[in-house]
Structure formats: structure tokens, C-alpha cells
């Protein structure tokens, strides 16, 4: 299976010490509209980057380009990604006719026994031990998304791409998922590119936040708040204000 | 409104909420007018579902019909020469079984239907896979099959008799021709309407093409195939009835034809009942298969 759209995008092998992700001069266009316009982005190995941007700013387009899912979309530029890339979608995208464990190990190579053991371990890591034989329909939305995380992790990805993975969850479940994702990230250390609408989510989770605007990265902000991040921290609030400004959200809109 | 998806509990008495009963949790009802709802007495949750299943639902309508027949014959409202009484039919069936006629003819009919069904299902699945999984196959096969679909099986019968004679091969082929169409149509449709999101997923987890077909395409098309199978089973029996009227020397249809020449209404009715029971149990069998094979699906029917 091709890892990338063919056409004009060059796919180059990554040298061992290179950044996990290197995007240079990326252009993606639907018809006349350039959704991504000469975009550059780098992610270090094990770096957690969140992408913010207005609706329609091209976040999903960028992610799909990195995931190699944009066959047939016109474009140029250079994309380097590691071998092992996992994607978490907004919908958990579990095959409804396959049991939870079968979903987790879907397409996993190697010995069947070893794959299933790894799948069980991954399910245990996301707190779903014992649900291996359930049907996806029998799980709550949050549990389904955890299965989808397990499916991504069991592949030991060097890069995890997530497009609003918690967008469909309620606020409480979302907070639990943040904690879970931080734990998993701390243990496995993949590079992560997380698309989100939620500024707080970006600040809580990421090492660095980038704001996409008109097909380019308009603002980059390193989050230097350390491990435990508290939304009540004044520095947190300052970063939030800065990012909301970059997104073109008026302070009046926020307080209103 | 209250939980839409709450499953109706066994033992709950479903009833419509009347206008005098305020919805729980909604203000407005005078307190104390209504006794506090016991947990088991609350209005049934799942509003848009079909409510509590009727026990043995499939048999209720049939039982009512038989009841009317019995009552009509007993009271003399139904003329015996037009429609024999149920007990006459039962004794006739008993005689036919005692003589071994019924079993023998049923065996012949069942073999025909089963052979036709097997060939038809096999052909339908193979053709659906060939045209559902490749563009070339689609270009080659779909057109002719759509044309065949437009021609009633009955219209093909003269040609099939010319080609294959009036023996068993013609009968099995006719049944198979009627069977493969619904199998093909529904399986093909199932294959083609796989959600593109699953195709994306398959790409991200790097399924090979055979893996993709096995893990995603085939299970995704299974509901379509099983729906086709239900139509096919009914269709095989319809074709069976048709071909058994054509110069058969054995089979339920032959038995009925023979009875017609002797004016034995009750034997004809025995034949009809056998056809009916066959169709009903065949459909029930496929529905059971459907439930088993599609256990992952939670639909309105559950
Ligand atoms: N398949 C497509 N065909 C045509 N235009 C598209 C297609 N997919 C996306 N677009 C356009 O590209 C632009 C960027 O879309 P994209 O999905 O990347 O936005 P996004 O930043 O992810 O938005 P959101 O936050 O709402 O998910 C939008 O203007 C959208 O209309
Ligand atoms: Mg998007």
C-alpha cells in the first residue's frame, strides 16, 4: 500500500538522526483554492505538536497529506514521515463486524499469537482489559475512542496523527482522555500531531502549538509550562489569550 | 424527552404516556395526583423502537387464518367442494404419508429446490464478487445481468425446455436462474456500498488487498448477501412451483396436477400447505442465519 499520494510529492527515506516529520513547501489545492500554500513544518522525534486553526483552514488537509490519504488531491512539496505512522480519527472508525480485539490487531503483521497478546496489552493500557470480545456497538463513545487509541499504539508508531480525536466526546470524558493520552505519550514517546479546536486541550497536551491560517503556519508557540498544567495558572491564561488572538477570536467573544 | 435509547426491560408493561401524565423530571404535574412511579411501572423508554416483541410473532397471523378456516368449515359457511375442511385435509395428508406418496414427492421437490438454490447462490456470489471487486468485471457482467433481471423467468421457460429438455436439468437450471439474480444484486450492492471511511482505515493500517477484501469488504457485504438470500429462497420455491407444472413425473406440483384431474381438492390443498410450510420454514431458517451472522448489528428488530 502506498504510504503517500503519488504525483508531485516527493517521498524520501528518513536518515536516523533527522526530525520525525519534515514538511517543506507543501501545496494542496482543491480546484483553484490553495488550501495549503507553501507550508513548512518540522516535528522532532517524540515531540507533541498541536495544530489550531479556524474551520476550513486546512488542518485536516495537512494531516491527510501526512497520513498519505490524499490520493487525487493536487499538490506539490516534500513530505518526510517515519515508517510507522498511526492515525486516530474523530470517529473511532472501528469495524462494527469485528470484535474489539480483532479491531485492535487489524492488519498487524507477525505471528497471530504475538499480535493478539500485544493487542490485549494495548487494550489493558487504555483501561479496557476484559472487553476484548465485545462488539464495538456495545461500547460507549469514549470506550470506542480508547479502542481506537489502542489500535494505534499497538503498532508502536513513531508518529501519531490525530484529527480532533476527542471532538465527539463530552467534556468529562474528554478530560479523562487527555490524562490517558498524556500517560500513553509519556510511555511510548511517538511524535504526535494533534488537530484540535480546543485551545485548552492544545495547551494541556502539547509541547508546541501551531496556528494554521490561509494555508500556512501563522503562529508557533512553545508551551513551557512543565508537566502538570493548570488552567488556573496565569501563564496558562496568557498563552490561551495569545492563541485566541492568533485565531482571530475577540476577547469580547470569549467573555460574552 | 427521556432516554430514547433505553432498552425495554423484560417484564415492563409498555404503554403510551397519556397527556395527563407529566414526563418525569418535567415540572407541571400537580404533585400527589399520581402515585410515584415504581421503577417497573415507568413508561417504556424506547419510543422510536418497535416496543416489546410479540411472542412467536411469526405464527400469530397464520394461527388466526387457520382459526377462520376451521370456524368457516365447522359452521358450513365454507362449501366443502370449494375448500375442503381442515380435518379432511389432515386425514388426507395422513393417508398420503401412510402410502409414502407425500414423502416421496416432497423429497423430489426439496432436492430440486435445494439444487437450484445451491447453484444459483454460488453463481450469484461468484458473479457479484467478479463485478463488485473489479472494474473490468463490472463492465463485462453487470449489463447482461441487468438485462436478464428484466426478463421474467417464466418467459425463458420455452427456450430452456428447447435447450435442456423437460427433465431435471431444465428444472434445476430454471430455479437457479431465478435465484442468482437477487443474490447478485444484493451482494453486489453490499460490496459497492462499503463506507469509504473503512477504506481509509484499511489504508492507514496498511492492509494488503486480500486482507482488505477478507476483513472489510466481505463482512461489510454480508448483510446485503443475506438479504439477497432471503429473496432467493422465496424465489427458488416460486420457480419450483412453475417448473413442477411442466411435465413433471414426481414432486409436490405433480401430485397436485394429478389431484386436479381427479378433482381431489383436499390433495391440492395438502400440496399448497406443504409449499407454504416449506416457504415459511425456509425463510425462518434464513432469518435465523441472519441473526447469527449479524450478531454485531443492533437494529430495530432486536
Ligand atoms: N474533498 C474536498 N473537495 C473540495 N474541497 C475540499 C475537500 N476537502 C476539503 N476541502 C476544502 O478545503 C478547505 C480546508 O479543509 P480542511 O478539512 O482541511 O479544514 P479543517 O481545518 O480541517 O476544518 P475543520 O476544523 O472544520 O475540520 C475547506 O475550505 C474545504 O472546503
Ligand atoms: Mg478538519
Automatic annotation (TrEMBL), chain A:
Gene3D superfamilies in the record: P-loop containing nucleotide triphosphate hydrolases (3.40.50.300)
Keyword ATP-binding appears in the UniProt entry: yes
SUPFAM superfamilies: P-loop containing nucleoside triphosphate hydrolases (SSF52540)
Alphabetized InterPro entries for the sequence: AAA+_ATPase, ABC_transporter-like_ATP-bd, ABC_transporter-like_CS, ABC_transporter_ATP-bind, P-loop_NTPase
Record-annotated ABC transporter domain positions: 21-239
SMART domains: AAA (SM00382)
Keywords in alphabetical order: ATP-binding, Cell membrane, Membrane, Nucleotide-binding, Translocase, Transport
One GO MF term attached to the UniProt entry: ATP hydrolysis activity
PANTHER family membership: ALIPHATIC SULFONATES IMPORT ATP-BINDING PROTEIN SSUB, TAURINE IMPORT ATP-BINDING PROTEIN-RELATED
Protein name: Sulfonate transport system ATP-binding protein
From TrEMBL, chain B:
Transmembrane region(s): 56-78, 110-130, 150-166, 172-191, 212-233, 267-289
Keywords: Cell membrane, Membrane, Transmembrane, Transmembrane helix, Transport
Compartments (UniProt record): Cell membrane
Pfam families found in the cross-reference section: BPD_transp_1
PROSITE patterns xref list: ABC_TM1
First-listed, main subcellular location of the protein, grouped into a coarse class: membrane
Coiled-coil boundaries: none
One biological process term in Gene Ontology: alkanesulfonate transmembrane transport
Alphabetized CDD domains for the sequence: TM_PBP2
One cellular-component annotation, GO: plasma membrane
InterPro entries, sorted: MetI-like (IPR000515), MetI-like_sf (IPR035906)
Membrane topology summary: Multi-pass membrane protein
Region ranges (Disordered): 1-50
Residue span, ABC transmembrane type-1 domain: 102-286
Residue ranges with Pro residues bias: 24-36
Family per record: Belongs to the binding-protein-dependent transport system permease family.
Record-given protein name: Sulfonate transport system permease protein
Lineage start: Bacteria, Bacillati, Actinomycetota, Actinomycetes, Micrococcales
Amino acid at each position: 500500500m502506498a504510504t503517500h499520494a503519488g504525483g508531485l510529492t516527493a517521498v524520501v527515506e528518513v536518515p536516523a538522526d533527522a526530525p520525525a516529520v519534515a514538511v517543506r513547501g507543501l501545496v494542496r489545492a482543491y480546484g483553484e483554492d490553495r488550501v495549503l500554500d507553501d507550508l513548512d513544518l518540522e516535528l522532532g522525534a517524540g515531540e507533541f505538536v498541536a495544530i489550531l486553526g479556524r474551520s476550513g483552514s486546512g488542518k485536516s488537509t495537512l494531516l491527510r497529506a501526512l497520513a498519505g490519504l490524499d490520493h487525487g488531491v493536487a499538490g506539490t512539496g516534500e513530505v518526510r514521515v517515519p515508517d510507522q505512522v498511526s492515525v486516530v480519527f474523530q470517529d473511532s472508525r472501528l469495524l462494527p463486524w469485528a470484535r474489539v480485539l480483532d479491531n485492535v490487531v487489524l492488519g498487524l503483521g507477525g505471528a497471530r499469537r504475538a499480535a493478539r497478546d500485544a493487542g490485549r496489552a494495548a487494550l489493558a493500557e487504555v483501561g479496557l482489559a476484559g472487553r476484548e470480545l465485545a462488539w464495538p456497538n456495545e461500547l460507549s463513545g469514549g470506550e470506542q475512542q480508547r479502542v481506537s487509541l489502542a489500535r494505534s499504539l499497538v503498532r508502536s508508531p513513531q508518529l501519531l496523527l490525530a484529527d480532533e480525536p476527542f471532538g465527539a466526546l463530552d467534556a468529562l470524558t474528554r478530560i479523562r482522555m487527555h490524562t490517558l493520552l498524556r500517560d500513553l505519550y509519556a510511555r511510548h514517546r511517538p511524535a504526535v500531531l494533534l488537530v484540535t479546536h480546543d485551545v485548552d486541550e492544545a495547551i494541556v497536551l502539547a509541547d508546541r502549538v501551531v496556528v494554521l491560517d490561509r494555508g500556512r503556519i501563522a503562529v508557533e508557540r512553545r508551551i513551557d509550562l512543565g508537566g502538570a498544567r493548570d488552567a488556573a495558572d496565569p501563564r496558562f491564561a496568557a498563552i490561551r489569550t495569545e492563541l485566541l488572538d492568533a485565531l482571530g477570536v475577540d476577547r469580547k467573544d470569549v467573555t460574552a | 424527552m427521556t432516554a430514547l435509547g433505553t432498552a425495554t426491560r423484560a417484564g415492563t408493561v409498555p404503554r403510551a404516556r397519556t397527556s395527563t401524565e407529566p414526563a418525569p423530571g418535567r415540572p407541571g404535574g400537580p404533585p400527589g395526583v399520581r402515585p410515584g412511579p415504581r421503577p417497573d411501572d415507568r413508561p417504556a423508554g424506547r419510543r422510536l423502537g418497535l416496543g416489546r416483541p410479540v411472542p412467536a410473532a411469526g405464527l400469530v397471523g397464520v394461527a388466526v387464518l387457520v382459526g377462520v378456516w376451521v370456524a368457516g368449515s365447522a359452521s358450513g359457511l365454507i362449501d366443502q367442494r370449494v375448500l375442503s375442511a381442515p380435518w379432511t385435509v389432515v386425514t388426507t395428508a395422513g393417508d398420503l404419508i401412510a402410502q409414502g406418496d407425500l414423502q416421496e414427492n416432497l423429497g423430489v421437490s426439496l432436492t430440486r429446490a435445494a439444487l437450484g438454490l445451491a447453484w444459483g447462490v454460488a453463481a450469484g456470489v461468484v458473479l457479484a464478487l467478479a463485478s463488485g471487486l473489479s472494474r473490468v468485471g463490472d463492465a463485462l457482467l453487470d449489463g447482461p445481468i441487468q438485462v436478464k433481471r428484466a426478463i421474467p423467468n417464466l418467459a425463458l421457460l420455452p427456450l430452456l425446455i428447447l435447450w435442456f429438455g423437460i427433465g431435471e436439468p431444465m428444472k434445476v437450471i430454471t430455479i437457479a436462474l431465478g435465484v442468482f439474480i437477487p443474490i447478485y444484486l444484493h451482494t453486489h450492492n453490499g460490496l459497492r456500498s462499503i463506507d469509504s471511511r473503512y477504506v481509509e482505515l484499511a489504508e492507514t493500517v496498511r492492509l494488503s488487498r486480500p486482507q482488505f477484501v477478507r476483513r472489510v469488504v466481505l463482512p461489510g457485504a454480508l448483510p446485503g448477501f443475506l438479504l439477497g438470500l432471503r429473496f432467493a429462497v422465496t424465489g427458488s420455491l416460486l420457480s419450483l412451483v412453475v417448473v413442477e407444472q411442466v411435465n413433471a413425473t414426481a414432486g409436490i406440483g405433480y401430485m397436485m396436477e394429478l389431484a386436479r384431474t381427479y378433482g381431489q381438492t383436499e390433495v391440492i390443498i395438502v400440496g399448497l400447505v406443504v409449499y407454504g410450510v416449506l416457504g415459511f420454514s425456509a425463510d425462518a431458517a434464513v432469518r435465523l442465519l441472519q441473526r447469527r451472522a449479524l450478531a454485531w448489528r443492533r437494529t430495530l428488530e432486536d
